[in-house]
Amino acid sequence: MLSGLRGVGKTVLLNRLRGIALAHDWLTIKIEAQAGASAARDVRNVLARELQIASRRYAPRSGEAVFKSMLRTVSSFGATFGVSGISLGVDLDPSRARTGVVDIDLRDVIEDVARAMRAARQGFVIFIDEMQDLDEELLVALVAAQHHAGQNELPFFVVGAGLPNFPARLADARSYPERLFDYRVIGKLSESETEESFVIPAKSVGPTYSDEALELLVKASGRYPYFIQEFGSAMWNVATSHPFQRDDATAAIHARLQRLDSGFFPSRWDRATPKEREYMLAMAEDGEGPSSTRVAAERLGTKVTSLGPHRAQLIAKGLVYSPEYGEIAFTVPGMSDFIRRQNLER
Ligand SMILES: Nc1ncnc2c1ncn2[C@@H]1O[C@H](COP(=O)(O)OP(=O)(O)OP(=O)(O)O)[C@@H](O)[C@H]1O
Ligand SMILES: [Mg+2]
Pfam families from the xrefs (predicted)? Predict the structure, then answer.
C-alpha cells in the first residue's frame, strides 16, 4: 500500500510495479477508484471487464480443468456486474460469482483465477489507484479476499495507492489489515535525488546546470516529483544556451508558477465551497502545516465541531487529510503558498 501526497509519484510507481508483474507474465488488472454517485457501480463494472480482457489469453487453455473453471467464473463475474460483448469461449458457471453480493462473488473469482495462476506458476494482482475513493463495501471485500487468499496460499495480491488517509480507512475496514499489507509512505525526494532528477535527464541529451541554477530549482520544487517535472520542463522552454544560468532558472520558476497558479492550483481551489475556502485560508496560515483543527477553528471564531462537516467535505474532495487526530493538512504540496500568493481576503 503506497500512500502519499498529490504528485509524489504513486501512480508512476504503481504502473512500474505492474510492468514488472507483466514482464513475468502475471495476470494483472488495474482500476482507479472514483468518488461520486455512480462510482461504486462503475468500478465493479471496470473490474469485471478488465478481468475478462486479461483472462482472454488463457482461453486457449480451456481444455485444462483449472483454466476452464477460471474462465467460467470470470464469465460469471462479468455477467453479474454488467459486462457484455466479451466472450471467453466457455459457458458461465451459475454456481460461482453469481450472487450479486460483491463480497461473495469477488472471493469466488479471485479464488478461481489465483488457483489457475498457481497452476501456471504465476500470480494475480489487482492494482488500485486513488484507493481512498474506493467504496466501503468493495474495500472490505478486497481485504477479506486478500486475507482468504493468504490463508489458502493463493498467489493473489492487492497493490494500492492513495492519499495519506487511506491506510487508516483500511485499518477501520477489518481488524487484520495491519499485518495483511505492507505499507509504504511515498514522500518527497532527498536533496541529491532531486538534483539527479534535474541533471541526469538533461545531461542525457547534452545540457548541464550551473550550481546556482540547480540550487534555485531544487528549492522551488520543494523536492516534489511533480514540481521537479514542471520546473525542469520550464527550464527547457526558457533557456537559450547552457550550462543553464541563475537568471534562466529564475525566469523558468516564475513562468511555471504563473502557469500553476492559473491551472493546477485553482482547479482544486474552485472545487471548494465558500465555507470550505474559509477553512483552507485558516489552514494556510500554518504554511505546509499540519494545522491544529482547534487553532483553525479559533481563527475562524467558531467551534471545532461546527466546522466538522466542512472539514469532512474537504477530505471527501481529496483536498485535505488528517495526519493525526486533531490535525489537518493539505494533500497538495504548495497549496498554502498558492493561497497566500493569491492574497485572498477572508
Ligand atoms: N520515476 C519518475 N520519473 C519521472 N517522473 C516522475 C517519476 N515519478 C513521478 N514523476 C513525475 O511526477 C508526476 C506525478 O507523479 P504521479 O502522477 O505518479 O503522482 P501521484 O502521487 O500519483 O499524484 P496524485 O496523487 O495526484 O495522483 C508525474 O507526472 C511525473 O511528472
Ligand atoms: Mg496518481
Answer: AAA_16 (PF13191)
